[in-house]
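Researcher: Go.
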Amino acid sequence: MAHVVAVSNLKGGTGKSSIAVNLACARATSKRRVVLIDADAQGTASQWAAQGALPIHVEALPLEQQRDTERWVGRVVALRDAADLVVIDCPPHIGAATSAAFLVADLVVIPVTPSGADLLATSKALDLLREARTVRQDGKPACLMVPSRVDRRTGAGREIEAALKPFGEAIGPAVGQRSAFLDAFTAGHWIGQHAPTSKAYTEAAALAAAVARRLP
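Model: Structure:
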């Protein structure tokens, strides 16, 4: 049975879809069957995959209405049973898709940029995650907070890990504010195809390795 990783925060602009796409593709390079579920109605991951160059299957599966949750979960389970890893790109708000994703995920990856607004959204995302743990009563989902779009030249960028530490969850390797990620999106490639010698790729690969270590 495949592991399920949900990439989520409750605020836009955190680099969520970029992390979801590049994480899924990085794991697919190890000959794993990886499926990326685009649960965000904005469809960024689906747009990224539209040129057909990514080494993963991307399926648009938004969930806006609570009454459709059972159908949505059933499709996620079907995809999980046919894959080695499922990554869910969640929408940037509390809603049916985010709640359902947290209830089926083994791990939730929470990208956080060095801003006060993101830290507030992260607190709310962690509240939702801990509610899911209470409902499930199996200790899942695990959590990995990821400093995202980090610029180490700024004070906030240098101190992001210290700002995240009080949340009490694991902190993964940082992903910088890199133009290479945007260029890869424009080309329809993941960062390992577009710029395999770049710092952006090194960071994406480090995050993929950190995620693998967090999965049971």
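Model: The CA atoms of residues 34 and 56 lie 6 Å apart.
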